[in-house]
Write a structure and sequence with these properties.
Elements: H1 44-70, H2 74-83, E1 102-105, E2 111-115, H3 128-131, H4 136-144, H5 156-168, H6 180-189, H7 196-212, H8 215-225, H9 235-243, H10 252-260, H11 273-292, H12 298-305, H13 325-342, H14 346-355, E3 359-362, H15 366-375, H16 379-382, E4 397-404, E5 410-414, H17 428-431, H18 441-451, E6 460-463, E7 487-490, H19 491-496, H20 500-510, H21 512-521, H22 546-557, E8 561-563, E9 568-572, E10 578-581, E11 586-588, H23 592-609, E12 618-619, E13 625-626, E14 629-634, E15 640-646, E16 650-657, H24 674-686, E17 701-707, H25 715-719, E18 724-730
Parallel strand pairs: 1-3
Antiparallel strand pairs: 1-2, 3-9, 4-5, 4-16, 6-7, 8-11, 9-10, 12-13, 14-15, 15-16, 17-18
């Protein structure tokens, strides 16, 4: 008698090409499966309506199926649905003879990662030929589609059986009507919406798949794409993680248990006690079905029922290669773009990336990344006084993204402090959303105001208590970080000193919806939140990622062109054919003049407002000056610290703070400059060997003298010893100082007229009756002639 797990029968199937290991990046948010208890109560009317709806749906499908089989009025409808069916993209899904290693390269074509299914235990490829001598295929066919070897993609009998089962069970069928081929179609396309048109399209796709692939090839796709719970996909991943063995070594009861998991991976989860019990009950059902179909003998059936399953204990041993934050992000982008371009699921796209020998060329600059790697393991940059935070529940963290200004490509990325110890850990650069504080001001209000011609750097506003919250008109809002006011200040001063009062007033002038529109144009879409005043000082419902902020500031460095950040340039297959190329979106958002104003003002932040220990304009190793602009950001209660900025070469953003997993932790005062420390440390090193450079000044920018009042200076301004300085303006703008609009603040004092005693002779020689006679009025009024 053969051992359990050894298949006695020899199958007459032609060899097939092995298929990819299927990945499940994400399971269905709503998994099917019978719940252990009712999760909610509904009224009898709701239950009745639901019952009737379910019955109508299955009846409609049955009628259409009958019409399709017999012809008639439903044929036109079916043909209409069929004509809109998208063809499945399966060109290379069954073409490889074996799984091939994929390679990831940096911008200088150095290999930075090797991707193999065997290194990723969640998604391991196995060929059908490797498991055909087990009971896996019999178990799957028995429970999922007993006439799989006979039908042409759809099973009329199974659909009818499911219909009768649904009617008998109040609208819930005990089994589905989908064949293994139909389920494979859904696993490839990811389309699982419940509608008549989708079901008909699924039928045609299934029949098309049957015409292009053999039964064994279809089954191979299924066993590598079926979800197995806990983010495991495919029978090999399930075998390795649940039983600690290869799928080719599975016994009969193990095969039956794994075959039952795809119906509801959450309900039958073997890693939970309740799920394990549910899975074993379903295993016994499958064994009974296999016996009924004479796939196993009575003795094999009884032996399997009496066999105690030995589940593998979960291990925390990390033996796989740890990929960097950048590498994981680049791979994720490639997977997403391939899935979108080919109309397949991310799971299937992942399978291709990990098993088809692809060559992924990324934008990573190794020298730039090395700088970040060193900085993010330097405790001194993160903890200026470790003793002060010794009792904190966690240590400070950070993230940083650097973008090449010439290309808009991501040059380097770090997603957390310290050495990365596991794959797919939290990447704070792209997955953590934190409010930006004042670092949003150049993006949300000042740049739009410059662009709309509402302000110039020398425009004067009053920094004083304001009431700009329409919901609380009697409340003093906003207040400055220092809780003090400077009086009349220029826009340049307001931006350098991060005055909240002026920012909110400028935001009001721009208009909240207009400000959000401009923010969306630079890659940060928060229009769904609607506009509200606290956004002007960085208070959003949904915060920003470090990548979003770096890309948005990059717009200023390019002269106003937003470029969607990208991490790879192209992907080639093992034969050198192009699989996909990066095609980043780019468009003009701001004028070059606006970007010059922002850059020039933010140079003052770096020079004057950052701590002298860390700040100051960047210089290369030869001492040549490189223009550096940036903006700090601080959120309420000192929870987050940001520094975002740019040079002529690179744009970068740093977030610094705590993950707040246990409680909300404020940044201690000694680490208030944490984001600035990291940013300046990295950017100084990145620019060490780059030539000196300045921001580009458009020809339309002119320098003009202006009074501290913001108006054209007059002699009176000089006499009043008012500050007269030179600032930048757009030539021809109405904001330019003009002698037609002289300073109204400093006005020349009129010269007083000398006081003269009255002349009794009224200006005439002599007096009344005296020499000259008459003494009467002078007809010439004292004038000669």
């Amino acid at each position: 008698m053969p051992q359990i797990g050894e298949n006695r029968r020899q199958r007459s199937t032609r060899p097939v090409a092995p298929e990819n290991s299927a990945l499940a990046d994400e399971l269905r948010s709503q998994l099917k499966g019978k719940p252990t208890k009712c999760g909610f109560n509904r009224s009898w009317a709701h239950e009745a309506a639901s019952f009737i709806g379910d019955i109508l749906r299955v009846v409609i499908v049955a009628v259409l199926c009958l019409c399709f089989a017999l012809g008639g009025f439903g044929a036109g409808m079916l043909l209409g649905y069929a004509s809109t069916t998208k063809p499945l993209s399966i060109g290379d899904l069954t073409s490889a003879e074996e799984s091939q290693t994929s390679f990831v390269y940096d911008s200088k074509n150095n290999v930075i990662a090797k991707l193999t299914g065997s290194e990723n235990v969640d998604r391991i490829y196995v060929s059908y030929s490797a498991v055909k001598d087990t009971y896996l295929d019999d178990a799957i066919i028995a429970i999922e589609d007993e006439r799989f070897r006979e039908h042409s993609g759809i099973d009329i009998k199974r659909i009818g059986s499911a219909l009768l089962s649904a009617i008998a069970n109040g609208g819930s069928a005990t089994h589905g009507g989908s064949t293994i081929t139909q389920q494979t179609v859904k696993l490839i396309s990811g389309q699982d919406e419940h509608s008549t048109s989708r079901k008909v399209q699924e039928w045609f796709s299934a029949m098309s798949l049957e015409q292009n692939l053999t039964k064994d090839e279809i089954l191979e796709l299924y066993i590598n794409l079926a979800p197995m719970g806990n983010n495991y996909v495919g029978v090999q991943a399930a075998a390795m993680n649940y039983f600690g063995k290869n799928a080719s070594e599975l016994t009969l009861p193990e095969c039956a248990l794994i075959a039952g998991l795809p119906k509801s991976p959450s309900y039958y989860n073997p890693l939970r006690e309740s799920g394990k019990r549910n899975a074993q009950r379903r295993m016994r059902t499958i064994l009974g079905k296999m016996l009924e179909l004479e796939m196993i003998t009575q003795e094999e059936y009884e032996d399997a029922l009496n066999t105690e399953l030995e589940f593998r204990q979960r291990s925390t041993d990390h033996t796989t290669t740890i990929n960097s934050y950048f590498t994981e992000y680049a791979i994720s982008e490639v997977i997403g773009d391939i899935a979108k371009a080919r109309g397949i699921t991310r799971n299937l796209a992942s399978s291709l990336v990990y098993n088809r020998g692809y060559h992924i060329y990324t934008t990573l600059e190794p020298e730039t990344q090395a700088v970040l790697d060193e900085a993010f393991t330097n405790r001194d940059l993160f903890q200026s006084d470790p003793n002060q935070i010794a009792d904190y529940p966690e240590k400070p963290n950070a993230s940083m993204v650097v973008i090449n200004n010439n290309t808009g490509a991501i040059a380097a990325m770090q997603g957390g402090y310290g050495e990365k110890t596991m794959n797919l850990s939290l990447n704070r650069a792209v997955s953590t959303h934190r409010n930006p504080g004042s670092s949003i001001k150049p993006l949300l209000e000042y740049a739009p105001a410059f662009e709309l011609g509402l302000i110039a750097p020398s425009s004067v506003y009053m920094d004083e208590p304001k009431h700009l919250d329409p919901q609380h008109p009697n409340t003093n809002w906003p207040v400055n970080y220092t809780r003090s006011y400077l009086g009349a200040v220029t826009i340049r001063t307001a931006l350098v000193n991060s005055l909240n009062t002026i920012a909110a007033e400028v935001w009001t002038s721009v208009g909240g919806e207009t400000a959000l529109w401009y923010l969306k144009q630079v890659g940060i879409d928060r229009t769904s939140e609607g506009a509200y005043p606290s956004q002007s000082v960085g208070g959003f419902t949904k915060g920003m990622t470090t990548l979003e902020m770096a890309a948005a500031y990059h717009t200023f460095a390019t002269g106003g062109t937003y470029v969607e950040p990208y991490a790879y340039t192209q992907v080639l297959d093992s034969d050198g054919n192009v699989i996909i190329k990066s095609d980043p979106i780019s468009y003009q958002v701001y004028s070059a003049e606006t970007c010059f104003f922002i850059g020039d003002c933010l140079k003052g932040v770096v020079t004057n407002s950052t701590p002298s220990k860390f700040g100051g304009q960047i210089e290369n190793l030869d001492g040549d000056h490189i223009d550096t602009a940036g903006k700090t950001g601080t959120t309420s209660d000192n929870i987050d610290r940001w520094f975002c900025g740019f040079t002529p070469y690179y744009s970068a953003a740093v977030w610094y703070g705590y993950d707040n997993r246990l409680r909300q932790t404020s940044i201690p005062e000694c680490d208030n400059a944490g984001a600035v420390r990291i940013w300046m440390h990295c950017m100084n090193k990145i620019h060490e060997n780059l030539p000196g450079a300045s921001f580009n000044k458009p020809d339309t920018i002119v320098q003009m003298q202006v009074c501290s009042s913001g108006y054209y200076p007059t002699d009176a301004c000089k006499e009043a010893k008012a500050t007269i300085y030179t600032d930048y303006f757009v030539a021809g703008s109405f904001l330019c100082p003009s002698d037609n609009k002289p300073c109204p603040i400093h006005v020349a004092t009129p010269t007083p007229t000398p006081t003269v005693p009255p002349d009794p002779n009224n200006g005439q020689p002599g007096g009344p009756g005296g020499p000259g006679g008459g003494g009467g009025p002078d007809p010439n009024n004292g004038q000669p002639g």
